[in-house]
Fold these 4 entries.
Entry 1:
Amino acid sequence: MSGRQLIDAIRHPQSLRELSLKRWDSLLRVARRANLIGRLAGGVRQAGFFDELPVQVQMHLNSAEVLTTHQRVAIEWETRHLAKAFESLDAPVVLLKGAAYACAGLVAANGRLFGDVDILVPRAELTRTEAALMLQGWASGHNDAYDERYYRQWMHEIPPMTHRGRGTVVDLHHNILPLTARSSPDAGRLLAASQPLPGSRFRVLCPADMVIHSATHLFHESELQNGLRDLFDLDALLGEFSAKSAGFWEELVARARTLGLELPLYLACRYAVALLGTEIPRPTLETLEKASGLGALSVRWLDAVYLRALMPDHPLSSDGAMALARLAVYLRGHYLRMPFALLTAHLSRKLFMRLFRNTSRAT
Amino acid sequence: MRIDADREDELSNRLRQVGELSLAELDALLDDGRFALQTGSLVSRIQASLPDVVRSIHVLYAHHPCLIDPDFADFHVQVGQPRNLRRWFRRQAEFLIDGERPFEPLPRDQAPAFLEWGLNWSIAASCHQWLTVHAASLERNGGAVILPAPPGSGKSTLCAALALRGWRLLSDELSLIDPGATRAHALARPINLKNASIDLIRDFAPDSVWGPVTYDTAKGRVTHLRPPADSVDRMQESAQPRWIVFPRYAAGAEPLLVPRGKAGTFIHFAQNSFNYSPLGRTGFETAGRLVSQCDCYDFTYSRLEDALEVFDWLADGGRVTDDDA
């Protein structure tokens, strides 16, 4: 079972009607690892032959649907609690990623599993927002002084805040990339262009920014466990926004230029086309390619890395080259995140702590 | 060990019991990751090379059906030693499902128990076709009793005693209730016993069969009891829940069976189900139907013989109502 077969299964669920039990076994395992089993289940359900599948397969797909349905409800419920926490705050609060897709009712939310709620506020409002969350029961876990400094001084978010009753987690951001990153954009522009969510106190990024954020996030990540899932998100966002607005592609390219994020957007489009067959107009791709400033050699290197690293990291679908590609993504992600000297110090410390701390965590 | 071609042919052609395999054959199959165990309707494919894990499976699952190289398994798990730097100064065991590690490693000698806990987790985390409740369940005369209880209440001890004396074991840790017919489904997996309970049940049933004992776990001394053959043979049969009994062991206590409020029982189920919340409305309705169709009791006891008498009386149609009090 290759990652390719998982992609085909999600894009063309009709092909699964005759799939043997043995192949279902592999497909479900790889899909679960890639966090795409919900999307797979949704596709099969829509294709209309769910009840004809082997009972074991139905059981696993059904369980996946139970989880995605629950998480969808849970994330909307959680944003209601957040809205309550922010009642006395007049700062704009922007929902990002999964929470935004769910609350805005976008196609990208269908069959998706959600993690933490990510929100973006103006940096000047960070302290007041954090205080408002703390008053309603959210608190950062015990971080040591180094972790605190890592987040507060260098990152684009504060340490994750967990609700003491529900155990849910909020990631409070003031930008979409670390302050130390080479291409950290002006968060004020993102906030200024954000749009109100009807019937809610929250805002979401404008369509172009939503795509650019998702792309930027994916191509600055140092770990890609959800890489393919995120690429499917992008595919859904691009499909939905371009169908709704005729000028979407031009707007998207112009916006990436303004924010200085043409490179990640180009990579997102390049690999969405290559891996998922996403329909993107040729002129858009060409303009982005030029603007990305990538030479032929860089493109070859990035292809070698990302075409492998975006595949599900499951023993059935993975090989040595993919492991190497993941290491390259890890290093690239960190390189983009911080200047070299800072990075070396940070990674050395991580390694040291991992080896010599927590040796008796098990008991 | 290699398995020769004739034997290979014989092995791969039918469903068989684990006990029909020699220890060496089981070892070879587990080492190659070709062995799969059937518990209830679930199939778990297992890769393991550690000798104590192999022995534990051979003993505890002797009556269970197994499959060699099945086309499909619900879970693909591994128990082994992590390959990291730490192995040079602290030996550990890890549990992997599909190559992922849901828990931190445990000390090496807990590997056999780790497999049991890992399989419990796998079911609770991904089988949402049932409401999965942290409770034991057993069947007698077609009716099932569910024994929910906080740790330390003697739930597993009582479950073991009942299973060894004519009640059919459905499950020790996870009761599986299907939302459609509200029936209890069986896994017939080994019963987890701790500390003094181990000696108590050993004395109670001297010919019972046990897995390896692990010392110094988070729960103290633990081991597993092999489920009776009849419970395993009938593990595909579900049963209609008729009683919910909260056991409580109290030293020196006379047996006391007291009716228990349904509302409180419902709340307990809601809080002690692993997937009550993901199931949403289905979870609420299933727990509701389950509690309303069962007689609910609190049961205090100190002697297993007393408990057996009371449970057999229940199975024969005995009831205590509030008016009796």
Note: Chain B touches chain A at residues 43, 71-74, 76, 85-86, 90, 92, 98-100, 104-107, 126-129, 216, 218, 275, 277-280 (CB under 8 Å).
Entry 2:
Amino acid sequence: MSGPAELVLLLVVLASFLVLGTARLSTGVRAVAFQGVLLGLVPLLLFPTWSWHRAALAAGTMAIKGVIVPRFLLWAIREAAVRREMEPRLGYVPSLLLGTVVLAVAFALAGRWPVPEGGGTLLVPVAVATVVHGLLVLTASRKAVTQVVGYIMMENGIYLFGLTQAERVPFLVELGVLLDVFVGVFIMGIVVFHINREFDSIKASRLVEGAE
Amino acid sequence: MPQLFFAGLSVIVAGGLAALVPSRTPGRMERVFAALVAAGCVLVALAALRVLVGGDAWEVRVAASVPGGAWVFGIDALSAFFLVAIAGVGAAAAVYGATYLAAERSHGGVPFAHAAVAVLLVTLALVVTARAVVPFLLAWEVMAIANFLLVMFDHERADTRRSGIIYLVATHTATLTLIGMFAIWSASAHDLTFASLARAASTPAAGLGAVLVLALFGFGVKAGFVPLHFWLPGAHAAAPSHVSALMSGLVIKTGIYGLLRVIALAGGAPEWCGWTLLGLGVVSGVLGVVWALAQHDIKRLLAYHSVENIGIILIGMGVGALGTAYGLPAVAALGYAGAILHVLNHAVFKGLLFLGAGAVTRAAGTRRLDALGGLGRLMPMTWLAFLLGSVAIVGLPPLNGFVSEWMIVQALLGAGLGKGAIRAAVFGVAALGLIGGLALACFTKVNGVVFLGRARTAEAAAGREVGPGLFVPMLGLAAVCTLIGLLPAFVVRPALAAAEVVIGGDAGAHTVDPGTGAAWVGAAAAALIAFAAMGWVAYRVLMRDRSRVVAQTWGCAFSNPTPRMQYTATSFAAPVLEPFGAVAGLSVSHQGEEYRTHPRDPWLEGVILPAWRRLRAAVARAQELQLGRLHVSLLYVFATVVALLWYLASRQVP
Amino acid sequence: MSWSPLVAFGVTLLVAPALPGVATRTRSFLTGRRGPPVLQLYYEIAKLLRKRAVYSATTTWVFRAGPIVGLAAAVLSACLLPLDGRGALAGFPGDFVLFAGLLALGRFGLILAALDTGSSFEGMGASREAMVGAFAEAGLFLSFTALVMATGQPALTGMLGAPLAAGWSASLPALVMIGVSLFVLLLAEASRVPVDDPATHLELTMIHEVAVLDQSGPDLALVLYGSALRFTLLAALTALVLAPRGALAAPAALVALPMGLLVIAAVVGVVEATMARLRLNRVPQLLVATSALAAFAMILVLARS
């Protein structure tokens, strides 16, 4: 596996740790944006065949994941007047410790999953770790905004996972990018309903309460 | 040899009997008791040392006239190592107890307490030397009962009674489990001696998995690792201080001895057992020290530290078991030897700390940390001994705690440099680091709040140094800590020999050269003491001709500080405990201007007691079936007879 | 014994008080001031050694022994590091445990000396020092263990010396992460921003400075030198990991030693100028994050081999 690709994947893991450990919401959003930019670079570094299609895809991914979605999220935070702390349910230290354990287990079990070898030794463990880190942030957060951040991380992990199949399945990468549209719906929800705390199901009564 | 050992035991028994003899001069029989027990312990230690320094292991069979087969006793390197700890700490505690309980003579039951201490020591020695099931279980049970009686010395107090009952329930659960374990194991053995159990273990029909699980549970309750530790803090705090020293230093180690002996007889622990021991060790170590930090009572704090140190011992045992399972003899030897050495080290420094806590309680009249202070000036000997014990328990150079910690880290590093899944064990080093750092926070808190600064209450200000009967045993134990730290090769070699017994002695230990590393550790300890001494001398020379100005402590121009303004133990521990959140078990109550914290044991009060209450409620409901009326009972008998007849009729005749 | 480790040891002891000066001067320079001279700490130590000491009536021998024990422990731990990049004055397998233990012993002495005064300020400082030490220890052990795994050498001489230079290219990301975590541990041990601000004069916001509030005269000189020496040792550790000198010949390695130390001190100054001190209850979070980083480095090293 080439050096730059490895470095980028390591930086992806460090970005997840930053989201798990930081107290500031804007730092968490920026970390996930940085992760998105890195993700745009990964297919370029992994599959050295150059094409305009590939380059455009990379640029588009970086634009959406790295610029548009985070900007949208920061705007939503301002509009809905969300408090600027991350407030994880578990606490910062247990989240970090759990994140480390997840990473160790992902590396330990990397060889055992029935995933075809595509992309080198680091891709599968980093992908799995990112998905689980995203799930961790998603389930253990008290606010809708951090849940969105967790969802974006999870989605980043799934995207990485999909890269192992990219050679075989056409348009997989493009479909991955379309998942970002779903993120937009979340964010609209926050702004439109001014939901500062979590939402777990969109019930009609909740909608009425939220609109008050 | 056998005669020396049994002679020593008889002398201890004689001491116990001497304590029961009524005498007109108060204290005379107690001095006789102390002298006899000390002499007996010296004899036992000599018998054990004989085996450790190159003697041969021996075994003695007593006639098979009682049911259950022949009674076999013997000393090998493993038993001998534990015997040395028992003899050393036992002698110190007995001598201390003779003076300590003298002040409670009006309480009644003091002679029985001394006799019970003698019984406890004898049964401890018998547990680690028994080589057959029946004498082992008999000694185990008598030890538990003697221990219970000693815990209940202050039985007028309600919390002592509660702790005693919880202890009794726990220890009998352990004994029942052990009986079950031996029953399963000896089903495939031809008689009840350990030698035939060892032979049976190599046959696949022995059910070794079930045996190991039951051993972990039964010996685990005695050893006191999480989650089986719930009886420990209450019992250790309620007992008189020398009994707490015996319990924490020796009795819980019989649980460790039992586990080691089972592993030795079973021919090595399987891999799952190693990982379980390692995991339990890490959890017990970290949780033990976190809960210790939250305590307000000095003896409960020391009891939780025993849980922590048992955790460290389990980490060593776990990596040792993994070493045998993965075929790394050096790792196995270092792991087990580090654990066994930590047994001795912990017995010595924990015994010392409990004796010190007893002296403090006697002098100041209270066990509450936040009521003490400034006792270092009033009790300099006790303070010196307690300080040395604290440095030892934190695992700092140049004392003995550092040596065993170093050995266990070496074993973990060896595991990391091996091949296969065992390499994940190296993360245990982080746990040891965290445990060490938290232990440092806890013991600086205890030393600082109890001995330094100024007394926070009038009772503490009235404390005076205790008599030599109390501080001489403490200083003796402190001297042992220092000696082991300076000359570790003398204990590392026997520990490796004992580890060899556990591994199975097939050339394992000889791959590890105990000489070089241990000699360096000793040299470093000596160098540290030398540098510090030189620094002190140079400092005195520098300051020789300068006058000293004595003033009040700087309080930012506040000119009237009172002792109550000093930092309390609770405040000291608060920043360290805060990141642990609910796990620390600290509940805070706020009433007007008062702010109190209550340490709870989350496992005892969150899991065990609610489960017990639910069990009692379910049993109460079942009790309704026992209505106590005659015709209902007759109906039950009738129904049972009918059921039996139907069963007998419908069964296939074989 | 060869002369190179001995000279390196002497140079380290001599250069130690200059490093906090370099850090402070860099910080001042970056924030638009001129700052104190780089050699300021030397002048202060010399001045303090000439003075009398003022002792509180509450203190005992512990107050005077604490700084001495701390200094002895720091000097002994300097003997364990291969300061010239090739060999230490003494070493044995597992000696990093001794290194960490000696630093902890110094902290122990400092905390007890603080509690000896019976002052609430110093009690607060002692409590905070204990907190920082408790969480830093795990990170220190993890960093050392990761180095052992990366180089296969159980002694400090080996894992920081020539074998490290050989193994650098193989595990570069892991070693960079170990270097970064050692740097954060340096900031914790030397009480620098973001763990503690040495330039503040509000006692309620201090950690280290308030724990030594009552020390004066020669005692304070010993404390200042001891802290500078601890700063230097951890800076040397960081420099040895990030820029292994094993391949250099002896004289070049000896010149590289103070240069590496000064560079690390300057980086500390840059960090101090750009960051604010963390809220006190965030400090354990920072230290746990550092431990997680070192654990990640160890996972990478284990996964690779």
Note: Residues 127 and 351 of chain B are 20 Å apart (CA to CA).
Entry 3:
Amino acid sequence: MDWVGHKASEREFADFAAESWDPLLRTGYLMTGDAKDAEDLIQETLLRVARRWKRVGSMDHPAAYARRVLINLVLHDADRRSRQRAELWPQDGGTEAADDGAARALRKVDDQAEFRWALAQLPARARAVLVLRYWADLPVAEVADILGCSEGTVTSTASRAAARLAEALSHGAPPATRTHRSASMKGNT
Amino acid sequence: MPTEELENELRGALARAAADIQDPEQAGQRLLGRDYRPGRGHRRLAAGAAATAAGAVALSLGLTGAFGSAPARGSGTIRTTAFTLVEQPNGTASLSINPNVLLEPSTLQSDLQQDGIPAMVHTGSFCSSEPTPAGFHQVVTVQRSVTVKRSPATLTINPAAIPVGTELSFGFFQLSQGLETAIGLVYTNSYTCTSTATAGALPGAGLAVVWNLVALPS
């Protein structure tokens, strides 16, 4: 670690962590579906950021770096499990009618646990597209850069992922999911 | 390109889901209370797992699927979703295995070694020595007769009792009935590995098997 013995760097990192933990935690929560898993994930993320703080601290947007670390941790875990990366949908299979149907389904959601369950049914990269694009509100180009795909793939994946979300919600979550879900959803593929 | 209406609904749904997290302030306090400097052990998320040292072994490890997450480390404790490793004041370590989560063998192996417990950890294979090194039951004790499936199983490991030239061997096998865990002592320089699940019948003394409430050698 390049900040040992440098009190100023330690303070800078502490300030960064104080500003960043909340959005990181919520991003992790959406990616994993579980609060404890999200907390573990954020701790690992902050550890990795801390190890590179001398470089990261001089970046224009260290929070963006930390978010990228977080997403990569989830995707790496998913890759390790599935051994396949075909989780994005490059062909635009979405239609306006399908988008309308998905929008209607999302509008009806009143059980957040069920929504998180439905989100967890998506492949990790598709989930990342939705979380980065519509929760973190990143431009399509930045999402594409983080995920290493084209901008077209990001937009088509968003439509397809939304359709899958709607389909999962229409079938409903298992009853236990509605009240409590303790198992990790991280890395579902 | 998703329609504008769909994009708006996605933003709203994700924002509501993100806002639904319970006790974020407590999580924040825990996160900010940790020491992120290197070489500090990074073991902070104490799960409070109680070690139970008893006689021989019988544990049930049902399996649902998800891999454990990256370890959270605090003073004396490493906690992942798959296992919790707690250093005890008397020098022993307690290892609680979450039967609901597939563990990552390299993570468990490195964390055991970090606690001064030489070990090899494999999934789909188990390594043993013939003859088996003596002293296993001075090294490992396991909570007896866990009756609730998918409850955490806890082992107590005494690294000081590990004979010189030996190390612990862990083998995890996913079976239709659940997860079988075989544990034994092996000579570091002389062992063989098998990919056959032991199904509750490990050969030789000084070995433990952890499998669907099957009792083990005492």
Note: Residues 40-71, 144-150, 199-206, 211-218 of chain B have pLDDT under 50 and may be disordered.
Entry 4:
Amino acid sequence: MSNWLNHQLQAIRLVLLRMRDNLLSSFMICLVIGVAMCLPSLFYIGIDSLAKLTNHMQKETEISLFLKLDASKNTISEIDALLANNSAIKQYHFVSKDEAWQQLQIKSKDDNTVGDVINQLGKNPLPDAFFIQANSSEPETLEALRIELQTIPGVEQALLNTEWAKRLATLLSLSKKLTFFIAILLAIVLLVIIGNTVRMQILTQKDEIEVSYLIGATRSFIRTPFLYAGMLYGLFGGLLAIVMITAIIQTFNYSVSQISHLYSSDFSLNLFNDRLYLAVITSAVVIGWAGSYVAVSRAITTALRN
Amino acid sequence: MIQFDQVTKRYPGSDEVLKNVSFSIDAGEFVFVTGHSGAGKSTLLKLIAATERPTSGTVLIANQNVSQLKASAIPFLRRRFGLIFQDHKLLYDRNCYENVILPLRINGVSGQEASKRVRAALDKVGLLHKEKAMPITLSGGEQQRLAIARAVVSRPSILIADEPTGNLDASYAADIMAIFYAFNQVGVTVIMATHDALGMSARQNRVLHLNQGRLSENMPSAESVLS
């Protein structure tokens, strides 16, 4: 057991020394791996964050019922009664045009441009409105309710706020699939790159392989250092990918926070997605191992035939 | 210890390199394998070292039939041998010490024990002071001695040498021969292929002579013993 461990440690040490001797080319390989891991990860983080945002929005299923601008007090109380008797409605509240106008003015106090526009308008352009929360959050039921409410006389427009969010969610699930395929393609590329790198190293160490085999080394003994080389390339490449992802998100978040501030949201990309980082490193190491395993097994067979 | 029974070896697309060869070598013997180049000396040594398998016939090494061994068992059989090649097969990317320690790594010997044995092996061939030198800086004779140190470091019971003095001038060759005789004195079986008679004439040795793949065995003659 201690023999086995000793051999593993020696192999790792040997590989690290070789990497240090060829520092630049080793760094290049790790960089390639890093960039290739970085791309799908960034896609994933972006899509994932947007998906969380839209999920959150979809829960706030609200139907806005805007009345005609000339709706009278009578019409309002009639609609009020209709809504109160509708069993599909959980709760609702009424916002009169004056209340809405005041709210808008208060909200836009900080923002000069919007404030100017409001002042220029002079009179209140807003309609009376009911904001309705339904019992169900099923998209079909909500849509049926929306159509029903639309037909009430005196109603200008019934709006289901979640529709755009639903469309976005569909788009996002499509993009998730796309990211998945990009990740698979890049994994294949990495497999080939790492395999080829290890193959080149085997060529430079052909003598060592031959001599070792002649004096009684087993195949696994010969294979071990190359497998570690592949895994270490994966590990360093994965770490490099994480550094790049973090740096990109950091700069991106700066701009995002400015945009989302305008929408009075605190949306930002999650900087420390430890599960993603773990996945990046694990897959990089596994790909490194697999790539070098294929290369070294083929190379040993051909090297020993001669 | 080593037993060949009607062994024939044919490489794909060639004639028979060895034809119906039978002999046996006991522990502690010093055996020369002679013959012209192409007579099958190297093939014979490869069969002994289990780097080749016979086309027909049986090769028994320490009572194990090489033809029937699993591929995974071959490396362990090979660790019984110390192999020395005409072209040394040293690794030029590391120093003498690192070259000699390689068989010990393969055998799983490490730490103090390993460095003790490496130094002992280097000492036996007179290269202890060159421990840190790179093999490329050594002379031809020193390189061959380094190869011997690597072959003996894991204390094999059989040394197999393929023309170890082939590329060396006479005084170096005599040095090398002396080292092999010293190992044979302490009980190591030595099997050496050679095309020249240097060193053979001086002592009483068994000779396996190959001629176009056929074996004829000469026991040492009375004259060579006397001279």
Note: Chain B is about 30% helix and 25% strand.
